[in-house]
Design goal:
The chain is α+β, with helices and mostly antiparallel strands. It has helices spanning 4-15, 24-27, 52-64, 116-124, 142-148, 155-158, 193-197, 231-242, 255-264, 286-296, 308-319, 321-326, 343-357, 383-402, 421-425, 427-440; strands at 20-21, 45-47, 69-72, 89-92, 99-102, 107-110, 165-171, 177-181, 206-213, 221-228, 249-254, 274-281, 301-305, 330-333, 336-337, 363-366, 371-378. The protein has 3 domains: 4-92, Uridine Diphospho-n-acetylenolpyruvylglucosamine Reductase, domain 2 (2-Layer Sandwich); 99-213, Uridine Diphospho-n-acetylenolpyruvylglucosamine Reductase, domain 3 (2-Layer Sandwich), CATH 3.30.465.10; 221-402, 3-Layer(aba) Sandwich (Vanillyl-alcohol Oxidase, Chain A, domain 3). It is 35% helix and 19% strand.
Length: 452
Amino acid sequence: MTDDSDVIAALHAVLGPAGVIDDADVATPYRYDRASAVEPGRPLVVVRPASTAEVQVAVRIAAAHHVPIVTRGAGTGLSGGSSALDGAITLSTDRMRSVHVDAAAQVAVVQPGALNAEVKVAAAEHGLWYPPDPSSFEICSVGGNVATNAGGLCCVRYGVTTDYVLGLEVVMADGRAVRLGGRTVKDVAGYDLKRLFIGSEGTLGIVTEVTLRLRPPPPATTTIVATFDDVVHAGVAVAAVMSTLRPDTLELMDAAAVAAVERVRPMGLVGVGALLLAQCGTGGGDVAELERCLRDAGANEVAASSDADEGELLMGARRMAIPCVERLGTVLIEDVGVPIPRVGDLVAEVAAIAERTDTLIPVIGHAGDGNLHPLVTFDASDAAATERAREAFDDIMGAALALGGTITGEHGVGILKARHLAAQLGPDVIELHRRIKMAFDPDGVFNPGKWI
């Protein structure tokens, strides 16, 4: 049987006082991610390595003592994927923050604890741009983005995290560090193993370095705002727009989400039934075509602005939606996706579920790629309301699957959705997942109990 004190002593010996937290009170902030409805466990110890070599040592100690490891980035996850487990090691990457830009090659070599915003700033200093932009880009880490294959507001045109990962360094369950991919745009030598790790939520290994593709800055954009009587009509408009255009951004907010933001940052949108926010390059005819398409689809008002500050103010309101809704109660944050023509059907189903379960469910999302975030909001001190909320949460995932969609588009499976994964994948694909897990992590060291 493992002696916990032996594990902690071994970690102290190699990582030193800066690399180990074994005081339960000091370790408390490392237990949680933003999935507030997930109750985390109590880790045996928190380790904070500063290099790949230190991660390797921590993994070897964990493997030798049969202690599992949960990798944690900035703690901004929304599905409980990095929530602590009882008796496990929580490995935080918050000391692994270096960012090195090679402007000539248009790449950035980044440790996993670096924030998305830090990569953007470093790229901009060289006249370059890192596109993936989750709403939490100012506080989320690159490692976390890789773990969930995070998207963001501009992914409609520019793609998600996986589209910008050229290479990974990964520490395996036996402590070996391997490099997957490289620095070239094209590379078909062997299996594309790096993509297997992108979106794997720390279940196969620990990413210790990421080589990211950068690109020249985007052109100036025009921001278009359209209001609708209700969210169903806005959803129908999304399908109409995406059938003919490819805007940089196309975001949806329903009446409850708009109202939640209005309470914090008034913008004169009281009484709006639903809102679509879009951005297009200022040059060319896309702006006029998008405005026409929105009007034809039933928008009440359509306004456009090429002022960068005004555009950022509007997009900032969209980014604020989840924190603003969280002020109303405990939130189970959905992350379902459907084929774009079914967006209207999905929002109609969510509205019906909200009414049937008597639960507040504001809806926001990256409508342009069919990825919506119904925010199931409830009073956690009310047992009946909590039960209704959990029923609504499950029903929304069922509705997405019935429409040919997915239970998660970018937040990951984590703890919140683990029991629903089989409903989407089916038994044969679940078995393939188990075989892959066994091949990479035969002793179940990494993030056990999440997924499968």
